[in-house]
Amino acid sequence: MKHLLIPALLAAAWAPAAQAAGSLDKIQNIVVIYGENRSFDNLYGLFPGANGIGRAFVEQSYLQTDMNGKVLPQLPPTWDKPGVANKDIPQGLPNMPFSIDAPPINQPLNKATNDLVHRFYQNQMQINGGKNDRFAAISDAGGLSMGHYDGSSLPMWKIAQEYTLADNFFMGAFGGSFLNHMWLACACTPVFKDAPDSMRAKLDANGNLLTKAGSPTDPLTGAPQYQDGAVTPDGYGVNTLQPTYQPSGIPPANNPALADSSKHPLPPQTQTSIGDTLSEKKVSWKWYAGGWNQALNDRSQIYGGKINFQPHHQPFNYFSRFAPGTPDRAEHLKDGQEFFDDIAKGHLPQVAFYKPQGELNEHPGYTDVMSGDAHIAALVRKLQASPQWKHMLIVVTYDENGGFWDHVAPPKGERWGPGNRIPAIIISPYAKKGYVDNTPYDTTSILKLITRRFKLAPLPGVRASAGDLTAALQD
Questions:
Q1: What's the CA gap between 362 and 469, in Å, rounded?
Q2: What total of structural domains would you count in the chain?
Q3: From which residue to which does the signal peptide run (predicted)?
């Protein structure tokens, strides 16, 4: 079957498979580890038995076009900045996926590449109705968007071979990290009705971004420049916004616990989150963030310093329930070191989320793949040695695709997503061993799993059509 966004085919493909949940009641601890910015094909496109890059070559579904639908004669250069090509990646690469870590490029997994645009409207324009054929034309990194790795040397690849790799798992929302962290927390898009006009995207009649005056029109000569913004015209936050509560990318003005309100942080949100539904049922849970305490105590570590702490990766810090000084904040928002300590002591809560700090999260631009992958794999091994392991389920996945191409069309959803395919690995004594799970999932499947296991009230944004990960469990 060709992976195109054809409604009749997608209706069938996106219907959840029959789910074997005989082991679910035995799970007492669910751990979610949330990496950064990798499409499935970028890391696992060569994984044996998975729907990988080879399928794209059979179907010839990889060809990239310009904005008029004309097939490009070659990939655009990898842009370092507007009009300036990267010297380490050759120009004139053929119009097809290429190996970043093989000749003629030979950039290993422990070397960071350029960052790539991964924003709400650009992502939809790259997907182009399911063709996935405008990644190179729209990316501010040009042809790099078509790059992938041989991930077989990665420690997490080996863990995926031991347990279950989901090869039909999609990011919850279009675009970047901010919105996809919110979708992990609440399956919702934040509201910013009073955002100034300067923060709102400017769209044409088709809902696509308007270009700036003088924007390049040929992808081979430069990346397009758009009249983009963090907020939709009708007041929803879809690209990176800073929290009102510290740690924030906006320094305080008077109150050291708050961002300067004149710089327009996102107002505290009040939508129902998975934290609310867990607390309502008295199910213990924590969000552990690498570098949390350091970022609170030293602003130089926010978007910089050794740990490169990313405030927009901390979704619960955007909600009024977790305001500074509240009991819920003290109980649920924790530093990453406490995660390591709780693993060793066997004191993890029933639901644990872990967010690696910037240097260890695999995000292109400011870190490499191998450092974060090795960090996550080491944590998995520590979890396996924990007293709680025998009744544990771990989900290792990524927030979004990071602007990297993937050959599988996202399922037809709604205004917010789902976006492109990303890796997800299900690890548990009860997970199927050496298994590739083709069940359709997205980020909200994690919420669905937690909700089902602990009999929570369902969150309204969780997609009914997506599976709940129980197909990865043994009968």
A1: 24
A2: 1
A3: 1-20
